[in-house]
Amino acid sequence: MTPARRSRLAWLHRWAGLVTGWAAFAIFVTGTLALFDTELTRWMQPETALIPHNARLTPRAIDRAQQILLESDHAGDPPSFLLLPEPRDPTLRVLHYDGHSFVGPVLDPQTGQTLPARQTEGGNFFFNFHYTLRIPSPWGERLVAGIAFAFAAIVLSGVLLHLKRLVPDYFTLRLKASMARSLLDIHVLTGSAMLPFHIMITWTGLILTAENALPVLQFEQPAPIQEGVAQQTNPHWAPQASLSRMLQQAHARLGIAPSYVLFDDGKTTLSGIRQNSLNSNDLSVTFDSQSGEFLSKTREASQIEDAFYILNGLHLGRSMGPMLRWLWFGGGLASSVMVASGLIYYTARQKKQPAKTFHLAQRLNIALIGGLVTACLSIFVFNRLIPALWAARSTLEVAGFFGVWAGCLLLAMFLPLNKSWRIIAWTTGVLGLAIPAIDGFTAPLAAWGTPLHLSVNSLCALTGLIALGSLRMLPDQVRHD
Q1: Do the Cβ atoms of 72 and 20 come closer than 8 Å?
Q2: Tens digit of each residue's pLDDT (9 = 90 or more) over 136-176
Q3: pTM to 2 decimals?
Q4: Are residues 190 and 328 in the same domain?
Q5: How far apart are CA 345 and CA 16, in angstroms?
Q6: Residue 228 included in any domain
Q7: What span, in angstroms and rounded, lies between the C-alpha atoms of 169 and 31?
Q8: For the chain, how many structural domains are there in total?
Q9: CA angle at residue 62 from 48 to 266, to 5 degrees?
Q10: Tens of pLDDT along 179-193?
């Protein structure tokens, strides 16, 4: 590669990374957490820990869920849907979309009784933030799609820049060198060690967001609306026929247990997720909501459609087994560290830039990187401290998340760099170590020893220890000297 071409690639890598890096870090962190969105929702609703993981769905519980659907329909509420018990979540949920998240009553799958589960966006908050940055539709999706395109260019230019040293970079990590040298080693190591993951997650994300990034593409043309013709003969969406009977027939026709039930246009669709699979193409059967008559079954997907569903499954990890999901979790953490170390390394090398620009980049690093981790831990704390029966508690949790993040931004902007970093690191450490203790005092006794609570509490405590450890390891290097 000629020096001129290498210089252009370095310019592209540096500026594309700087412009999109802070948003990309937030997307990677929340996307990594969203891999376990179902588990996080259960942790944030500790009342569901009383349900055993192998609880079986009974006709009595289905009948109770159908009664709730009918009552909601008669009250004029928008359509709900059912999430049926599965290994990741053994409860029966009746959910509707409130504009940001899916909320609704949680039922015992055996008795049908409503569990006193606190209302929360749960892990779905991180999933929603991952692909919208909490910006109203469609602008949030389009912004994330644009960042995905930019990140693809960053990955490609980074690979070309370090192609000759790709193998040696696996074994280079000089933590005792200068801070800039150590950061570059961490950046390159996390980039090269997980390179196949970075390429896969970036390009599958590009495929999923292509239509949002290029809204002029219309893959489906809306059907023309004829004046004077009613669009829906029956305004009611809740099923009148027995849901329990439809569920039995769906299980027999699909060969797998249905995972969720949708209601639309007088039809009831029961769909099953292929567990422990990379293919996200769910199998579905449709019944008439009024008579319960079988209408159709999903056709076999073509090879091109199957390829798209596999790419979808690789990115979302919705139907993966736990081992692959943990591997993807590790890859997401490596991507987050790669982006963060790259941003900090950039400011460490830019001392020749004007002082205002240099210090602004440093402050944004502290606020948008360290502050996001603090805010993610804070939402778990708010989940436990806000009274469980408060009607608007899910809104308060989200407001607390953004309030803590905004507070970190103000600290970084108005306090000396060294002081603001220390305050944020101390806060992160205290929150991470406090979460297991708070969970122990507020969660039911049945939840204390479950693998779910042990895993979440351990990861929060580990995050807190790393934050406190950074104070000891980097006491004088906050200014990137």
Answers
A1: no
A2: 888 888 899 889 888 888 888 887 877 766 656 555 555 55
A3: 0.89
A4: yes
A5: 14
A6: no
A7: 26
A8: 3
A9: 125
A10: 666 777 788 888 888
